[in-house]
Amino acid sequence: MLESFRKASDWVAESGGDVFPTFASFQWFIRKHRQELVGSRQYLPRRGSAGSLIGPGFEQLVVNILTRECLEAEGRHDVAA
Predict the structure, then answer these.
(1) Domain residues for 32?
(2) Measuring CA to CA, how many Å separate 49 from each of 7, 45, 46?
(3) Contacts of 55 (CB under 8 A, 6+ apart)
(4) Which of 4, 14, 57, 70 has the most other CB atoms within 10 Å of its CB?
(5) Cβ(26)–Cβ(15) under 8 Å?
(6) Is 20 part of any domain?
(7) pTM of the prediction?
């Protein structure tokens, strides 16, 4: 299971796309949603040069969070997380 986790910096560089064009934008997202991300077990924060790890379900988790935020901004609350 752990072999499917990747360093966050590598994930952003390879898969961040237009959602996270910079590592700074990724870090902002992490700060904003840290509790949910850690609770999902798809984000494992680590300190220092080791770097945090991203699980295989992280991309879907990001899509779910962003979709929920869009719908909440429109005043809709019928979003399944």
Answers:
(1) 2-73
(2) 10, 12, 9
(3) 4, 5, 40, 41, 42, 43, 44
(4) 57
(5) no
(6) yes
(7) 0.84
User: Is 81 within the bounds of a domain?
Assistant: no
The yes-or-no verdict on residue 80 having pLDDT over 80 is no
CA 24 to CA 57: how far, in whole Å?
21
Using DSSP, state whether 2 is helix, strand or coil.
Answer: helix
Tokens of 81: 């997380």
Specify whether the CB–CB gap between 51 and 9 falls below 8 A.
yes
Q: Predicted confidence band at 78 (pLDDT cuts at 50, 70, 90)? A: low
Domain count for the chain, please give it: 1
> Rounded mean pLDDT of 5-13?
95
80 within domain boundaries: no
Averaged pLDDT, 6-31: 95
